[in-house]
User: Fold these one by one.
Assistant:
Number 1:
Amino acid sequence: MVFGFVNKENMSLLTDLYELTMAQVYFKKGMNKTAIFDFYTRPVENRSYLVNAGLEQLIYYLENVRFTQEDIDYLRTTGFFEEDFLSYLKDFKFTGNLYAVEEGEFIFPNEPVVQVEAPIIEAQIIETFLINTLQHPILVATKAMRCYSVARGTVLVDFGLRRAHGTDAGMKAARASFIGGFAGTSNVLAGKEYGIPIFGTMAHSFILAHIDEIKAFKDFAEIYPENSILLVDTFDSIKGVYNAVKAIKELGMKHFKGIRLDSGDLLKLSKEARKILDSEGFKDAKIIASGGINEYKIKELLDKGAPIDGWGVGTELVVSADLPYLDCAYKLVEYDGRPVMKFSSKKKTLPHKKQIFRIYEDGVFKKDIITRFDEDIEKGKPLLKKVIENGKVVYKLPKLTEIQKKAIENFSKLPEELKDITKTVHLYPEVSSSIQKTVKELERKYLNGELQ
Amino acid sequence: MVFGFVNKENMSLLTDLYELTMAQVYFKKGMNKTAIFDFYTRPVENRSYLVNAGLEQLIYYLENVRFTQEDIDYLRTTGFFEEDFLSYLKDFKFTGNLYAVEEGEFIFPNEPVVQVEAPIIEAQIIETFLINTLQHPILVATKAMRCYSVARGTVLVDFGLRRAHGTDAGMKAARASFIGGFAGTSNVLAGKEYGIPIFGTMAHSFILAHIDEIKAFKDFAEIYPENSILLVDTFDSIKGVYNAVKAIKELGMKHFKGIRLDSGDLLKLSKEARKILDSEGFKDAKIIASGGINEYKIKELLDKGAPIDGWGVGTELVVSADLPYLDCAYKLVEYDGRPVMKFSSKKKTLPHKKQIFRIYEDGVFKKDIITRFDEDIEKGKPLLKKVIENGKVVYKLPKLTEIQKKAIENFSKLPEELKDITKTVHLYPEVSSSIQKTVKELERKYLNGELQ
């Protein structure tokens, strides 16, 4: 029996077959000059900005990607590869440069979030893992920031592990949602690995295993006197609130951390629950809401005055339910010093090694300008940082709390129309005249039949 | 720097905090009688059936879940746990029973796909991982089967690794889509780990790195004379087909495996491409289509007569784009011999340890009947098999090819209206009178205030 865990030892094979077959052709043909690849996103519905995340995992991969003897032995059995190329793979490592927009920065369509500069065999082989490891964190950090943007200081916690697409997505979602402004996660392993605060309440099964609800609440509160969020909706939410109050009082406790509502009309129930808790002397007890929560529901409930103090946001966060995938790509933009672009249908690419300059006006984000790498824009903040140089990591990742702080600061600098979760505004970067010139030149050559 | 890989050693912590805090309360209160939990799905949009998958990973987890010293040390630092409970965790393993519907069987709303019978602490702790490891494979196997059901014998290949939500989802998607009738995957690691056939073509970057398209095609076809699917849409798809033909002819090759169309009007382009290939003497050359493919597009294109021989199905398959999550739950249905149910809002549960009997009529699936575990339905096929007994695996997983065969056979036995991808029909199982009697009894007790 196999499980299929991906780890440091086997991650090099977590790639599309064509990356390796193309690599063998390059190898056989002696074609291995420096290539520049851009990873970028295309405009998507329901998102006016994306929050960058996932870089830590990408760096780890590029530092550690190797083909083990077991990998090589498997590749030999496929019949696609010859011995000279398999020997090359035995010594394979990433020796190129990585430029990247930092985690917690906001990104917009067509911008090279990550730029790889490496011998083309290396730059090609890493493609699949690179996209896989970046897409999902960006989706979740963005969804989280959208929740944060409407939460008015209420507490957001990732409850999504069980509904994430597999184990790795559960880990990535916890980390990315923290970057997007969440206070923590229910995922214990993410707490351990990333140092993220962990949170938890109780399940319906806990109530049902007891003979009655009050006994269940008392059992829990006795063991966790400071830390009991009592789940009140197993039978009837309002009766549940009264039972919770009763349990806390019967235990003679002064402190009552709070309750969780997991179903029903959360506006009505939270208002009733607040009244009961206040009138029973538990003004500090918090009301946590969960069950199908997303940014739209948070906004609606808070707009209508729901006295909800915190949110367990699960499924819709971790699968980014209203946008479960990004239209993103990793495209060749330069080979051996020659700028290249793809012409097919509407999916044109921008040639050249690049830089992104971010322009602010009176502290508010105004626009981005994409330039050739060696151009300089006065007063612009260059976004692409050198992260790996000749295969060596030259960038120090900030702490996760610092990345979160940066993301929140960046949000505050957005123009108002981009902050509105009910609208989609596509803010495209300006493209410098030098890149535009190359685009025109390549289009001319293409129309003249010099490219075919 | 940490990567966050989940593996055999740390997977026990891949759980929601509340599983462990509830477990500590049970432990402290000496409450650890046998519990029965059902994992089941609720009705969803766009799916008239679900294809079961993910069992192999669940079995591996239940066989191997342990808390290491490192896990215990971390849990101690959280402040949530006391030493006696941490000692208990040190010796923790799953000692219960697992009943499951086999992979490749079709499942319907409210049916216990998996049933766990174990001391409640064990049954509770495994909840999060169990749901995480089952949901995504079921989503993908189902999406794959929907593609298979309209593909009329054309070849389906999973191209989705890059857009899957993290590394594990990429692995699970390859395995689950194979169960759902796919011929293979582009994911090399899935090929190695699961023995799934691997497929690949070439990328736009390969064309762009060359000075011209014909040279690129020739380079590739020289190295892979039997196995070159040439990607023709980098500049212009039809010109690309001519260039592909030219490359093959200039190499003097008799065999031409085929071309891939990745953008544009696939109906028009595939028809034109077919004409060109045929008239140039390459009647055997295949046309593969990719780019935003899903079951609806496959059906539409084939209905309109597109001469497409194979499909690279990526993003929409692996994220199950039109249904990115299941409404699924893991609920307590019996504790210490006492049947229990949850009453909140519309999410009622069915009490008791159960069996599902599947009834066929003239070889066509007619209905399922959910009974108490010890009831017997004449001529019904019991679906829940004993997989783990007292912590030991007693079930031999079929080969993946056998599971696929079973899934395809099961599909053929569905009534026609359930096969139609354009309709959603919710086929609910019958509930036996003995379970209905318990439901009524519990409702009566609840209304009388005996349950609260």
Number 2:
Amino acid sequence: MTDRTDIDALIDLMARLPGLGPRSARRAVLHLIAKRGPLLTPLAALMQTVADTARECLNCGNIGTADICPICADDRRATGVICVVEDVADLWAMERSGTFRGRYHVLGGTLSALDSIGPEELHIPRLVDRVAAEEVTEVILALNATVDGQTTAHYIADQLEGRVALSSLAQGVPIGGELDYLDDGTITAALNARKPL
Amino acid sequence: MTDRTDIDALIDLMARLPGLGPRSARRAVLHLIAKRGPLLTPLAALMQTVADTARECLNCGNIGTADICPICADDRRATGVICVVEDVADLWAMERSGTFRGRYHVLGGTLSALDSIGPEELHIPRLVDRVAAEEVTEVILALNATVDGQTTAHYIADQLEGRVALSSLAQGVPIGGELDYLDDGTITAALNARKPL
């Protein structure tokens, strides 16, 4: 089937996306070919546009299409508070909640001796610079509640101690969560941080 | 975040692929942007190429990049045997097994009164024409072992009865299958079709 190489190559590339394997990549490609007009052609064009225009915000590390991302450029957002997140997906998750009205700082990962990811790779010096330059009064450490995330949070807290108010996200029972399905650590955290009614 | 519309639009389109939801589409797009050179740019180009060149084989309904697909054009493949499949994914699955050396006929679905899919929509008249024109001696009905698939197989068998030898795929225990996990129907079929050692 020498003639099918472009379609085969497309399947191979699609299978490299997270969440897709060889089988689902084949299904996706057949779906794309079946929906050529409404889906495949616009998708190809949009991918090219994003490939040409997407870039990291020079200030916070968010992904946008300009040197300074819309959040950093939005002067209605509070400048005195920086929310530190591991990656852009976490920033988007925070934005979907619609609660936070300050700025962000995207680390791009967590500290890891094993993968030789040190403070420089995570733009932690740039965070320290921003705290001084933007007259920041509070840094919220919204890192994942994993060992790596918490190690990184401790390191950043050490760097910034005494310069700004530091806080981290509350730990406890998630909304809609059932106690029976929660791990012991979460229940312990929720109990220790219990609030008077 | 008005500036993020291209990336947002890309996420929305990706979420329309089978097997991807909003969350995995966001992950996929972030992965694409992170791997812009090795993945996003070639994927955009390849999608455009496939959008421009992919077409249905005029003879069998397979997808390729020419009017006649490589299988129909390959004169080393037997012309006397046609394997009837529901869709192109099934044809690819048959080809991966590497066993069948004849030609195919892709129906593009199954008969369905509910969705008003009749014989014309499934290219069944074209199959009947091919049986006469290509001097076919055997038609293998490789339709899915579902109610719709079997209804369609019966209809085709009625149309072709007396003109060619008709066969269908054997039913039984799949290779590596454990009896305890098989449904009753499969065990019954395997028992009824038991073979002497």
